[in-house]
Amino acid sequence: MSALRSKMNDRALGGVLRWFVIAAAVALAVVVVSMAARVPADVAAAPLFRPPPSTAGTDLEGEQVALGSMQGAPLVVIFFASWCGPCHEDAPIFAALADRYRERVGFVSVAVDDVPHEARAFATRYGWTWPVLRDDERRWVAAFGPPGVPATFVVDADGAVIRRLTGPVTEEQIDSALNRLVASSDIVDLPG
Fold first, then answer.
1. Average pLDDT in the 156-176 region?
2. Which of 68, 60, 93, 113 is nearest to 178 (CA)?
3. pTM, whole model, 2 decimals?
4. Cβ contact 98:130 at 8 Å
5. Which helix (H) or strand (E) element contains residue 148?
6. CA-CA distance, 143 to 155, in Å (whole number)?
7. pLDDT (tens digit, 9 = 90+) per residue, 75-116?
8. Cα separation of 59 and 91, whole Å?
9. Which of the chain's termini has less CB crowding within 10 Å, N or C?
10. What span, in angstroms and rounded, lies between the C-alpha atoms of 16 and 161?
11. Which 3-state string (H, E, C) describes 13-80?
């Protein structure tokens, strides 16, 4: 009889312990989520990483383009491919943003695993007037580390990536980051 009671107490204790562990995990998750939601804007804008300014590639016209030559103004770096469906959805957004921020923000696109004439046709179709790079040696991919296409990086005037967006974007996502950068600095002429 006492062995049966002991077994029942062990099961009850195990059940209580299991519920206690689950409750503690849920409480911890709630705390982590609430803390993440309260990240101040200046902390959220802290640099994620700094790609090397020596990162360079060849544009579709055969000209060498170095990341370091674009510092001095905010920059949007777009990794795309002409065969990527979501990239076609994003392309008009970038054209509109480039038009809105002209003279204050630079844009550069990097064709990933794409045929040069297809990348050129893509850029022409959407009215992209900024450099479109072939990344045959994958230097830009190595420097920025996009997990795939589309991927977008917002870089501040000092060359630090402050925002990374993977997958399709909205105009508001990029606009909010660019507004902060443009508002925090005087209007500058783009290097080049």
1. 94
2. 93
3. 0.73
4. yes
5. none
6. 13
7. 999 999 999 999 999 999 999 999 999 999 999 999 999 999
8. 18
9. N
10. 48
11. HHHHHHHHHHHHHHHHHHHHHHHHHCCCHHHHCCCCECCCCCCEEEECCCCEEEHHHHCCCCEEEEEE
Supply 184's token pair. 């925090």
Are 16 and 24 in contact by the 8 Å Cβ rule? The answer is no
171-177, long-range: CB < 8 A, 24+ apart: 171/93, 171/96, 171/97, 174/76, 174/93, 174/94, 174/97, 175/97, 177/45
> Regarding predicted confidence, which is higher, 187 or 66?
66
* Higher-confidence position of 21 and 86: 86
Tell me if the bond preceding 150 is cis, omega within 30° of 0: yes
Rounded to the nearest angstrom, the gap between the alpha carbon of residue 134 and the centroid of all alpha carbons in its chain is 20
* Token output for 17: 């312990």
Cα 24 to Cα 31: distance, rounded to the nearest angstrom: 11
Residue 172: other Cβ atoms inside 10 A: 9
Residue 106 sits at φ, ψ, to 5 deg, of: -95, 155
